Amino acid sequence: MGLGGSAPTDAAGAFERFKRRFGEADGVGATAGRFAAFEDNYAFVRAENAKGHSFTLALNHFADLPHEEFKATRLGFQASDPVSWGGLPRLGVHRRGGGALPESVDWRDTEAVQPVRDQGHCGSCWAFASVAALEGAWWVATGEPLALSEQQLVDCSSFGSGCGSGYPQGALTYLRRSPVCTRASYPYRAEDGLCTEANCTAGIPRGGVVGIKIVGSRSWPSSEEALMEAILQQPVVVAMDATDRAFQHYSGGIYNACHRMAILTHVVVLVGYGADKGLTNWLIKNSWGTGWGEAGYFRLIRGGNTTGSDCGISTFAVYPVVDSHAPLPPKPEPARMHYEAPPCHGDESVADLTSPHLMINLTGTICAPYPFWSPEGPPSCPEAPTGSLAMPDPLDQWGVDQCVLICQVDEHCPIGARCEGRLDFSVCTYPSTPGAGAWAHAPGGPSRGPAAGQADFVV
Q: Which of 207, 224, 332, 453 meets the CB 3.0–4.6 Å disulfide criterion with 382?
C-alpha cells in the first residue's frame, strides 16, 4: 500500500516497521546504509504515485535495496547466440492462424499455473520462467499438474551461470536430455550447488521435452495477435526490460514505464491477457514472491509491437513443446561396466571428441559406451558410476555416437578422473598415459552462491 505523510520521520517510522518484519542489517553501518536506500525509495514511491500513472508503487520487501543492487541480484537474463541453442529443435515460428480471439485469457484459472514462487537473492529468473512454462505445457498435454524443480537447472544446466544468469533455450535444451525433477524431490535453495538430479524423482521423463516454438525474436518481432493466439494455446516464456526503477516497487495496475529501447534483462511467463479501464494488457507471472505486484503477477500495457511499448517481450517469446507419451529410457547395463580408464570393454571404445563442432582439446581419455537408440525417443546412456555426479550424455546433437560424462567440477567425476574442457562443455577423463590409472592431483571443491533473501511483504 502507499504511505502518507511528508516528513523524514515518516520514512523512519516505516523503516522501523520494515525491520521488525525482515530483521536488521548486520552492524550499525549496514543498517545506516539500508536506511539511506529505504529513505530514497520511500521518496521515489511517493513522487511516482503522485504522477497519476496507470499503475501504483509501494514499499515491498525490496524497499531497502539500492536500485543497482536490486538489478544485480534479481535480474538474470543472459542473451544467447545461435551456437548456444545446442541440440534443442526449433520447431518453427508460431504464425497467426486467423481464427477469432477471445477478449481475455487467464491460465491462472487452471492447474497449468502453479503458485507464485520466489527466486530469492539469486538471478535464476530464467530457470523459474522455463519451469513455469514447462509446467503449463505438460498440464495442457496431459491434464496432470506438476511442480517442477528450478534448482535442478541452477545446479545442473551448463547452458547458464546458475544464480548469475541463464536463458530459456539453454534450460530447455538441458531438460530435453534429462528427466525433469519434481520440486519436492529437488527443492529450491536460491544458491549454486552440486548437481544431484540422479537422486530426484522425475516429473517428466527424459524425452518429454521435444523442442520449442518461437513466437517472437529480434529478427521477427511477434505481432500482438500472434502472441495472443500463442497464449490461448499455453503459457509463453518472454524476456523483458525490467531495468526501470518503478518495476522494483510495482504494486498494481497496468505497467507502462517501458524504456524506448528495450534491453532484455529479466525472464517471466505470459499467462493471459485482458483489458481494464479502457487499457489492454498482458497478464504476466513473475518470480519475486507474492509480496511483489498483484500477488506476484503484473499487468503490462498491450498494444503495438515496438520494443518501446511492450518492454521488449515481442522480441523474445517462446514456448516449449512436449511429448506426453515419452517412453522411459531403456534400463542401462550396470554402471560399474562403463566410463572407466582404458582398456575398454567390448561395448565401449576410447572417446573420440575430435568433432569440429565440439571445439575441445583434451589431455586425458575415457572409455565411452555406445548409446541405446530407440525409434520412439532420443538416445540414452548407461548410468554414471556409483558416487559420480557427472551426467551421461550421448552427444547425438554433435554427431558423436558415444556416451561421455558431462561435468562442471572435478568432484562430479568418478574417482581417479578429472573434469576438463572449456567453460561451457567439460567431460570426465583419465590420464592418457597407459597404466597411469588416475590423475595425481586432488579434485577441487564446488563454488557456492549467495543465500536466499526474504520476500512476500508490502509495508
A: 332
pTM: 0.69
The x, y and z cell numbers of residue 325, run together, are 507419451
Beta bridge partners of 270: 236, 284
Ranges of beta strands (E only) in 159-305 are 180-181, 202-204, 209-216, 236-240, 250-255, 266-276, 279-285, 297-301
Q: Which amino acid is at 293?
A: G
Find all residues with CB under 8 Å of 43, minimum gap 6, and list them.
11
Is position 15 within any domain? yes
Render pLDDT for 342-384 as a digit per residue (tens, 0 to 9).
888 777 888 877 766 667 777 888 888 887 765 556 677 888 8
Cα dihedral 273/274/277/278 (nearest 10) = 90
Q: Which stretch of DSSP H or E encloses residue 137?
A: helix 125-142
Let me know whether 356 and 413 are in one domain. Answer: yes
Say which residue the cell 491434464 belongs to. Answer: 143
By annotation, the residues acting in catalysis are: 125, 266, 286
Number of H helices, E strands in the chain: 9, 21
Here the cell at position 35 is: 536506511
Give the chain's domain count: 3
